[in-house]
Amino acid sequence: MASSPAQYLIRFDDLCPTMLSNRCERFLSLLSLYKVAPILAVVPDNQDPDLNLQPPDPYFWDRIRTCEAAGATIAMHGYQHLCTSSGNSLLHLHHETEFAGVSESRQREWIRCGLEILRGHRLNPRLFVAPRHGFDRNTLRALACEGLGVLSDGFALRSFTRHDVLWVPQQLWGPVEKSTGLWTICIHTNTATAALEEKLETFLRSNSKQFTSFNNVIADTLPDNLSWSERLAESIAYQRMRMSAAKTRMLHAS
Ligand SMILES: [Zn+2]
């Protein structure tokens, strides 16, 4: 049986009132041109100085509400984006993260506060995006308990359930043509180059029909676990990514 063609989701990370709003707008306009609905990963209460890139935009929350009304999905991107914990993450791609290694009660409190902030801005957060892929079993338990049981992360080729949470995979940081599977492309608009913007436009021009939305993925997902062969493929993809992350760290350290 022939496998179905690849499907793509796109996610923009690190959205907060002090992000570089013009850059984010450019990417959002590009997607609306091709009628693609993104996942917007919003930091509820940013305290990370690295994301303080301009004075707070007084219209930020209005703009995000407008995007959600137009079809975007809102993700909660951590709580304050302060990556000061060095606990072990289930996906160990960075040494310091916000959530991994923090007590379950504290993580639950952060998730509850984050949801309150986003809902206070009249947004409807549907899933969680952990800063720097940092999350552990406590995070997953806290997410399930707080009713936000969907995560955008991992290296599988489809959505699946693990530890009571639905995982929607996220494996790419730029557009790459794939033959089959579900692929989420994550773009950090604050640091995205003009070359990446151009590459995305070219990719959308040829592949926009293969982009799906979070709602479609959820509607099509059976809440089941990965088979052993899918877990093996996931593990190989993850190890490859860990090696490449380690290489990048070495290059940056030198
Ligand atoms: Zn982030």
Automatic annotation (TrEMBL):
<dbReference type="Pfam" id="PF10096">
    <property type="entry name" value="DUF2334"/>
</dbReference>
<protein>
    <submittedName>
        <fullName>DUF2334 domain-containing protein</fullName>
    </submittedName>
</protein>
<dbReference type="InterPro" id="IPR018763">
    <property type="entry name" value="DUF2334"/>
</dbReference>
<dbReference type="GO" id="GO:0005975">
    <property type="term" value="P:carbohydrate metabolic process"/>
</dbReference>
<dbReference type="InterPro" id="IPR011330">
    <property type="entry name" value="Glyco_hydro/deAcase_b/a-brl"/>
</dbReference>
